[in-house]
From TrEMBL:
GO terms for biological process: mitochondrial respiratory chain complex I assembly. Residues 132-142 have a biased composition (Polar residues). Belongs to the complex I NDUFA12 subunit family. This is NADH dehydrogenase [ubiquinone] 1 alpha subcomplex assembly factor 2. Residues 114-156 are annotated as: Disordered. One of its GO terms (cellular component) is mitochondrion. InterPro entries: ComplexI_NDUFA12 (IPR052618), NDUFA12 (IPR007763). Pfam families: NDUFA12.
Length: 156
């Protein structure tokens, strides 16, 4: 035998083909263990994205399920996922409406958004402009806390 015997098990909606290779002996007498493999429609590794392989087929490839999935099972699970997303969006919208109503009625305070410039331990914390006067010593030096004066000696 000069090649692996692989059995086509199925094809997904994206066109990926799935194969089962039973345990075999090579021409040198070595035992090759059984494995499951995919022949991707787009074999370029860099173009692979999550979702290119249905989760049911991935579970079969990884050995988490014995039987390969059927098209009916995959379509049923896709519809189920769509319904979950729709229900989650509805719950999110209801929650936003409830939260806004609580804010309007004064039951809950609105979150305060603060804007912080710099770090509180920096000597220039809260200052809009940096000074040309040194504001720290070597022990408390803060990078970017001092700018050289404008009229410094520049080589012309």
């Amino acid at each position: 035998m000069f090649g692996l015997v692989k059995h086509h098990v199925g094809t997904d909606q994206f066109g990926n083909k799935y194969y089962y290779v039973p345990e075999q002996r090579s021409w040198t007498g070595q035992t090759i263990r059984s494995k499951r493999m995919i022949e991707a429609v787009n074999p370029k590794e860099i173009e692979y994205e999550v979702g290119n392989i249905p989760s049911e087929w991935e579970a079969w490839i990884r050995g988490r399920r014995v039987d390969p999935p059927t098209i009916e099972e995959i379509l049923h699970n896709e519809e189920y996922r769509k319904m979950i997303k729709i229900n989650a969006d509805e719950v999110q919208q209801k929650e936003e409406i409830r939260r806004e109503k609580e804010y309007e009625e004064g039951l809950v305070a609105r979150p305060i958004r603060t804007q912080t410039k710099g770090h509180a331990s920096a000597t220039y914390y809260g200052k809009d402009d940096l000074s040309s006067e040194p504001s720290s010593t070597a022990n408390t030096f803060q990078p970017g806390g001092w700018l050289p004066p404008e009229n410094s000696n520049k080589k012309k």
